[in-house]
């Protein structure tokens, strides 16, 4: 509907003298249903150009619209110059048919058709199991990937990690110490070593497989063994959350290919790096920062910025049109250095898009909540899923805008009632499917339904809400804000409840109307299922 109206308005605006560029106006669903089906603010964006008041512009624009009376029922001017549009009943019924026509594909678009998208997310080094702190990153990244797929893009999900450096060395030494303790030695963990019980579990696995034969080994084989075991855990956790990576990119490969050295040399050739106090500095003051930034420490070890510049250059050189990073809020002041580094290499840094999210706090009854854990002083994602379930975990991570701090309420997540939104939406789908199964016993639902019989206010309001779904999918993708689908499901749930309370479906004398209402329920169930599918959540047939 928005697309249809936009074309009408754009065609009319082309006939105005003085308008060289069509303004970026908005077409929105009014908050008040009495204001019509769609509201347009274009007239209020043109007074300076046309030297007329908004209402006069709106009147002239309406006169120029090539209106099809079978589609548009009425157009009104409201307030300072809003143009409110009402569509015909037959138009809405025709739109409802699209849900049945597209079925599982209803809501898909070609907004990003032909675009290749790489989404890098999670990217935790293999030093331990994924924690609640990684959970929001993982679910956001995967759901944004699903949104781009629904909007026509070819999407690859990538996990970037580093299996070298101090963290991995300490990991190997920690496992080695636990192994030596199993052998009866009085070994101590290294300074800053990993204390989680998973380290002891890995050491026990080494002992079970190799006995005492590793007694004289260095920490290197312990590190390699631990890395493989931890990555098994990480992949199992991701798969449990309905997340499957397409590729894993190891930072170490950048060193082996010489990409780190060549990146540094290119920046040096462009006079953007210099040596001072034994370190190598990036001239970030040339990009507006107060201070220059270290790329290579005096110890000779690069900071993460240098390999990240090389890695993002690699992404772009692989031919992706859009490269999305999912970062925690602690990266908000540092990722611009990487973007500027890529731009300095002569690459199109506009292809890099960063989704920054705020962190998560587990709460219960309004207080910080800590589950009993044998994994040191953190809560793993697996423990959280054990506590509340996989679908609930995904849904709660997506309930708020990425830029908003998220309080994950354990008590609410465990509650099987309307207070738990994911339970409510899953139950709504199961409830509708139950009604449809009962309808099969009372009606011949294989015969065509006369949808024009759907004329009640609650019926039409539900139909109009169903037809908003594609717009919400596009908006959620464009803004990379999956929580907008939660907003939509809230709206749809309200309209479904109003319909169900006021419009009896079964057991009425008008069998044709009953069949039409069953069809409306089928469309509602399909849209709920499609929305939950994008969120990576199952829509059950029974509960």
Gap between N and C termini: 35 Å
Strand order of the largest sheet: 7-6-5-11-12
Low-confidence stretches: none
Measured by DSSP, the beta-strand proportion falls in 5-15%
> CATH top level of the largest domain?
Alpha Beta
Tally of extended strands? 15
Q: Kindly report the average pLDDT value.
A: 94
* Overall number of domains: 4
Detailed description of the structure:
The chain is an alpha/beta fold and 543 residues long. The chain is flat. It has a five-stranded parallel sheet, sandwiched between helices. The protein has a four-stranded antiparallel sheet with strand order 1-2-4-3. Strands 8-9-10 form a three-stranded antiparallel sheet. β5, α5 (132-150) and β6 form a beta-alpha-beta unit. The protein has four domains: 2-87, Arginyl tRNA synthetase N-terminal domain (Gyrase A, domain 2, 2-Layer Sandwich), CATH 3.30.1360; 116-161 and 244-357, HUPs (Rossmann fold); 165-240, no CATH class; 418-534, Isoleucyl-tRNA Synthetase, Domain 1, CATH 1.10.730.10. It is 48% helix and 13% strand. The model has no long low-confidence stretch (mean pLDDT 94).
